[in-house]
Amino acid sequence: MADCIFCKIAQGEIPSTKVYEDDQVLAFRDLDPQAQEHVLIIPKKHLESVLALKAEDRDLAAHILIEVVPEIARSLNIDASGFRLVTNTGADGGQTVGHLHFHLLGGRSLTWPPG
Ligand code: 5GP
Ligand code: ZN
What we know:
binds zinc ion, binds guanosine-5'-monophosphate
């Protein structure tokens, strides 16, 4: 999608520090990390948020949760210590980039609830 910063990152038009990639998914380090480990996991295909996921995206959503998240957590060595997986959605959810992304945060003890 034109003018989408994460589409541009997925297409390599904007550089990012990649931590995982396959044909459907890219994960890269957040520009403004909120924890020692702060990775954004995105589908390469443009989807506005979790609300845009359709039945045809079932395999993609499952792939992210079942394969991608655990693989990245293991590769960052935060699978045993724990981590947080968050997807901010819409204005009240604090979403600032309109391309579905999952924040994976770890490497420190996180508090709950968030602000
Ligand atoms: P949101 O606020 O939508 O949940 O999260 C957007 C995240 O994208 C923020 O944590 C922000 O720091 C990150 N971000 C915004 N622009 C860029 C960018 O160009 N590169 C990277 N690596 N992260 C970005
Ligand atoms: Zn996009």
